[in-house]
What does this fold into?
Amino acid sequence: MHIDVILAAPIVFVSIMATASMVLDALKTKENGKTIFLFSIYVLMATFLLSALTFSPSSHFGLVALLSKFGLAPAPETLHVSGMLTVFNGMVGVGGYGCFFDMIFTLGGIMTILAARPFLESEKLEHSEFYTLILFAVAGMMLISHATNMLTLFIGIEVMSVTFYILSGYTRTNEKAVESSLKYFLLGAFATGFLVYGIALIYGATGSMDYATIASATHGDIRFPTLLLVGIGLMIVGLSFKTALFPFHQWAPDVYSGAPTVVTAFMSTAGKAAALAAFMPIIMVSLPAAMSYDGSNKIQMMLAVISALTMLIGNISALVQKDVKRMLAFSSVAHAGYLLMGLVAANPEGRNGIMFYSASYLFMQIGSFIILSVLERSGQTNHSLESFNGLSKKYPILAALMSIFMFSLAGIPPFAGFFGKYYLFTAAIHADFTWLTIVAVVSSIISVYFYIGLIVNMYFKESQEQEHESQPGLAAISLVLSTAGIIILGLLPSVVLSIAQASFGNH
Amino acid sequence: MIDSYIPLIIMVSVGFLFGLSNIVLAQFLGPRKNKTKVKLEPYECGIEPTTSARERFSIKFYMTAMLFILFDIEIVFMYPWAIQFKELGMVGFIAMNLFMILLFAGFIYVIKKGALQWR
It folds into this structure.
């Protein structure tokens, strides 16, 4: 019990602190947005540190080794690292994989909170609940990435989704935000039904909700193969909704463009990474046998078709958008399609590709949404493409940063987006999905048109307005962080890739 | 495999037949009165309804109802724990305390934010 808490320290810590921030807010009588803002920043930074320290639990630099020096924990050598290390009766997996995603989520949370503060202040909406909800969302996502049991997964997905429903309607006098919140809630609740039904059928077919037990059950003689296949199908429907994949992506553009921009930044990046963190163990760890059931690879083929259609539909829809926020929303749908290629490939390269791309996607997408949010506060209230004309004259720095994000999203070499796509595409080729790679390349080329189109608008179109002073405030820190992230991931991709590789060391 | 489902099937069919038989028997055994407008009103011997019942209620009712469910469920969880108290031992005690502390934290928040003030 005691060692369990130490090993699962990141989740335990962030959950307790999220609750504590709620109580802290209640105990003080006056409005205390600033206190909770600082509190949540420190909590997320500490969680990042804890995730890094529990990354490989049995190493000599980890949290266990640190605490054992003071006699607070057993020596790290005594931990059993054969197979995946789980705690709390096999409900939560620790180390590696989960911790990699934890770091992505916490970074996303920190950047969002930093960018949100000036926005909330200018809207006179700074209530401490915003920060508390972000903390709860991060806790839910971490539960998803650490889940080794379908019940843990389900609780994580619900904690994350419910906070997103609230956050997307946070500016509650804004009609569009309320619409997006209600739409997201109704459709999200419906999709959860599919997910639970899928879990129930998989439980019925294999007799367990534990990932490892399901895996061993599917390797043997499956008693009700049809039940299992239907269960997997329903689970894929539920998770596709959360990831915004093709037939279930309809909600994404409306919700993403209606919600407050800082919230969209968080939902479309960390939320998507969390949904993929849920997808990966289910498809790759628990169900590899089911995937090639009777040798026909039905599920793999289905995922490949979903992936191809998601990319095409996302990019083609983004092509005709007149509103930049909506265009980015559609492009985030398309990027979910690229990410799914790693799952289709179902090989270690695909796995590492997804993890690398999730990290780089976080930086570039969050960065571009934060720029939109900064522009909103500087007086550019609509996000139409024309309003970006001559932005390089008005706000030279913002325009330059936006160009970096756009180049990276389009996948142009020195930036992170290129290497992410490169790893995913090679993974798909090695898994004999050349046709999928061709579709992916074609849709990336389509996407270049509107990403570069925005840069053309910013740099080569004239506008009458003079240079303005932008007011990024704390959002500047997030912008610096995301730009640094893109450039570091782009210049030293092997470092992050080896971390992703190492995260499967004890699996 | 199927054998173990037989009691379930019997129970479902008994329940179904019981409900069906009540409806059918009421038609035969019940007194047959003429159905006038007054007879079909929701409250035959009360005040006549003035407006439609489909109107907006104050959010306060929902807050109270929601909080009631929360603490109602807490009590429901405490019964099985109380019965298994000795078997679960210290671990169960700590887990239950954690659960109650979490709910209590929510309770403090709710009270301080004035969700239970009936203004």
Q: What stands out?
A: Chain B has a mean pLDDT of 84. Chain B touches chain A at residues 91, 102, 105-106, 108-109, 111-113 (CB under 8 Å). Chain B has one domain: 3-112. The two ends of chain B are 59 Å apart (CA to CA).
